[in-house]
Amino acid sequence: MTIFAVYKKLEIMRKRILVTGGAGFIGSHLCERLLNEGHEVFCLDNFFTGNKDNIIPLLKNPYFELVRHDITMPYFVEIDEIYNLACPASPIHYQYDPIQTIKASILGSINVLGIAKRTGATVLQASTSEVYGDPQVHPQVEGYWGNVNPIGLRSCYDEGKRCAETLFMDYHRREGVKVKIIRIFNTYGPNMHPQDGRVVSNFIVQALQGKDLTIYGTGRQTRSFQYVTDLIEGMVRMMERTGDDFTGPVNLGNPGEFTMIELAEKILQLTGSKSKIVFMPLPSDDPTQRKPDISLAKEKLDWKPLVALEDGLRETIAYFRRMDRFNRMDFDMNFGTTVLHVRSCFEGKTEETVADTVKRVANIQS
Ligand code: NAD
Ligand code: UDP
To answer: Which of 45, 163, 229, when mutated, tests ligand 1's pocket best, judged by the most ligand atoms within 8 Å of its CB?
Structure first.
């Protein structure tokens, strides 16, 4: 085959893919994976919880396009596939503005389903294990309808995601839209926001900074933690390897189940930190147990998670260590514009003015 023929073949195979929430933790890994496979990626984000730093390495790829947009507003694009991830995902972020959270799930779904209906694209919804609420069936199978409080503090997220699933299935049944639904269980890894309040990022940042590790409640509640590369593999298989008649929902998670005490001890051991563990009140409606049954994913996607918790935690700790060092001293400065983007997540900022930065660096160095 001539080089021209190879190039032509690649052009034909290259899809145009929209990733909403593409600058977030999971979205940034997904954009990278899709670009590596030779696709053209449209990363749409309003940067509510996403971070430009997550996607800066992708900007040099001519097949990557960044769109600042809020998915609660209509958006028009000609596209082959859509991964719908736009929604704040950690409890402190989604409870910050619960009305915007539920709009992101519901109006966001209506808007992406509208694009899919018009263009014939397949659309995948990033749903969540939260649709099972505080589950009374353990481990959770897709056929379980859940135990969700409709009026509690977590409801804006849980019920928003449940309604999004309903919208996806109704657009499929009524309008023939090609849909896929995955239910993601707790996922962790590099590019997590260090201040998103989730347990893995909290414990690692606390351990690295020598602060107390904050366990909520007794610490005997359980979660199953999935490393991000395993999730991305499952998402892409769901999109690429299943027929139009297979909508899911499919659980994607790691069935290894740990108490929060076990997680805290593991992180203390892996970081070598001397931090202490302290106990704090349990937030309302905090599920007592969670663990996916992944038989369906095994059968339909030939998928299972490959990364053990300890290995994934090592990678994540290394990422937060780099970030911590970066934040303290040697961040890249780009004086191309008047706004300087610095990785200062440990202080909860993503953008600051040159004047602010100069002042901050002077304080660090003095
Ligand atoms: P994240 O907060 O890092 O990413 C969400 C992204 O969506 C951010 O970049 C944010 O700025 C963007 N966003 C939010 N509202 C938007 C809007 N209205 N318009 C455009 N962009 C918007 O969270 P994540 O962990 O990467 O989660 C991604 C998706 O996966 C979410 O839909 C979440 O519900 C789902 N999920 C994640 C987990 C997990 O453990 N991380 C578990 C279950 C489900
Ligand atoms: N949690 C904790 N300490 C923290 C943050 C969270 O003990 O600093 C607990 C939280 O109460 C929950 C579990 O860890 O029981 C997982 O919390 P996370 O917010 O990561 O995810 P979710 O509750 O959405 O599964």
So the answer is: 45
